[in-house]
Amino acid sequence: MRLFTEGEIRQLEADFMKTMGPGDPTLMVRAGRALGEKCLEIAGLSEGSGKILLVCGKGGNGGDGLVAAGFLIEKGLETTLFLMSAAKALRGECRHHYQALADGGGRILPLVTPEDLTRLKTEMKTHDLLVDAIYGIGFKGGLSPFDEEVIRAINGFEGKVLSADIPSGVAADTGRTGSLAVRADFTLTFGFAKAGLFLEPGRSLAGELSVVDLGLRPEEDRQEGVLEVITPQWCERALPQRSPAAHKGDFGHVLVIGGQRGMAGAVVMAAEAALLSGAGLVSVAAPEGLHDIIAVKLTEVMQHPLPQAVGGYAALTAAEELLRALQKATVVALGPGMGTASETVALLKLVLPQIQVPLVVDADGLNGIALILKEEEGFFSRLKMPLVLTPHPGELSRLTGRSVEVLESQRVAWARTCAGQWGATLVSKGASTLVAEGGGRVHLNPTGNSGMATGGSGDVLTGIISGLLAQGLEPFEAASLGAFLHGRAGDLALLEKGSYSLRAGDLLAFLPAAFLSIKKPGGNPGL
Question: Residue-wise over 328-365: b if at least 16 C-beta within 10 A, else e?
Fold first, then answer.
């Protein structure tokens, strides 16, 4: 499902207006009527029953609310509209619908003074549903003290809250909020879903989301610069097909490089995830002191013990053994539990440019590259392999030199920028993980939950993506499918374990079920 920015929606609306016939309903009329229908659906109201309260701003979102109020009155519902503007400040179509509502006997009350706010709070006590039509996609990040008080009152409403297009106070492109935003039970978004409805905190504030078609028509053939939500249907198409006559060599060989003293679990989880994701062969290259532990934990992997320094991390002399191991690998997963000792970072600087097969870099592999970039700014230009980077916000901050706050304020834009500059597929981890490629296309992952915010979760993701790459998927597809499966495994685990007790190992336990939920034996898609 494609997501749209405010600018894209404005352009689509402008294009639509050029094609309208004299008798065609305007976009505001279409949106307002759909909003009224949604009110009836949510409240379970029949014509002639129920009480609905609307809070409208002076812009287009408020105009949608004015149309909805007229529609509801026609249906016989008791409707009260609070207008956060003087009537004379309304312009164009908003003014027209205000006048029509007023002429039709609609109950319109002002909401511009503290006394008006007190009256709003009183009215709330006797209404079943409140419609938020204050800002819509026009919100730019700042609220006046009075607007804050209005939104605070709406959030205290004991009935259901329906937001028109997007909860007021949420930025349409980023999902970010200012000091406060409406916390909706339902959101009806117009035309197409907006990016901010799938990025936190907008995603959590939107409640149950539905989209109404207004007749807008985007370019069908556009690929670059598109933001899309990953769906189960997309995943089913992307999932590698397996021939009945296949053998293990057909499904690739993943080499996991990482580990240091006290961090054996990271490479173990990455390797097991690669196996569970369909890789034909998996090997682990880790400091020699870890391999007895690895042998106990994993039966199915091959091992490449690496010379280690006194501190228990890979020594620079491990380069020769790593290069031998690389000769048989078709995919490399690098970084889990590796550490960032100076000798290990020097090893990375020596070996990375010699890797020719697809490479997934996570954890201390990313932190090691961040240290290398301080000495050699153009280091990424020396990496010629298909590259997947999987940073969380802190790791991305170290790679870019930008603060976490700056990066999180424009997640989609930064994901595109970094993927393009580094010639990589970037997996920007977090709530609603983003997968970006150099051409500007971005996938947003809708699966996952807060219980996955635990040590080792990223190692599992690294292994999943590596296992999918080993079966021949392109980096962008492997990373997108891997992120979805990773989150789906977490969501399935959540049902049994709850968010407090969920561990990274549970993701491994539920990964087979996550695959089955996408494509069941016999080829039937699942949900």
Answer: ebbbbbbbbbbbbbebbbbbbbebbeebebbbbbbbbb
Are residues 391 and 400 in contact, defined by beta-carbon separation less than 8 angstroms?
A: no
Residue 52: which H helix or E strand, with range? strand 51-56
DSSP state, 503?
Answer: -
pLDDT of 204 > 90? The answer is yes
201 SS3 class: coil
Q: What CA–CA distance (Å, rounded) separates 329 from 247?
A: 16
| Exposed / middle / buried, residue 70 (Cβ in 10 Å: 0-12, 13-18, 19+) | buried
The residue type found at 261 is R
Encoding tokens for residue 344?
Answer: 């290990």
Residue 266 CA to its chain's centroid (Å): 25
Gap between the Cα atoms of 136 and 64, Å rounded: 10
Which tens digits make up the pLDDT trace of 131-150?
999 999 989 878 999 999 99
> Tokens 């980023």 belong to which residue?
174
User: pLDDT digits over 268-278, tens only?
Assistant: 999 999 999 99
CA 160 to chain centroid, in Å, comes to 26
The rounded distance, in Å, linking the Cα atoms of 361 and 374 is 18
DSSP line for 302-333: EEEEE-B-TTSSB-GGGHHHHHHHHTT-SEEE
Instruction: Please state, as a whole number, how many other Cβ atoms lie within 10 Å of the Cβ of residue 221.
Output: 5
What is the token pair recorded at 250?
Answer: 């057909």
Q: What are the structural domains of the chain?
A: 2-222 (3.40.50.10260), 232-518 (3.40.1190.20)
Decide: helix, strand or coil at residue 232. helix
In angstroms, the CA 304 to CA 39 distance is 63
Helix (H) or strand (E) holding 130: strand 129-133
Tell me which residue of 201, 123, 131 sits closest to 162, measured CA to CA: 131
Residue 218's nearest CA partner among 62, 498, 8, 26 is 8
The count of C-alpha atoms lying within 13 angstroms of the C-alpha of 216, restricted to the half-sphere facing its C-beta, is: 23
pLDDT tens, 422-450? 999 999 999 999 999 988 899 999 999 99
Q: What is the value of pTM for the model shown?
A: 0.92
Encoding tokens for residue 115? 């006394």
CA trace torsion 255, 258, 263, 269 (10° rounding) = -30
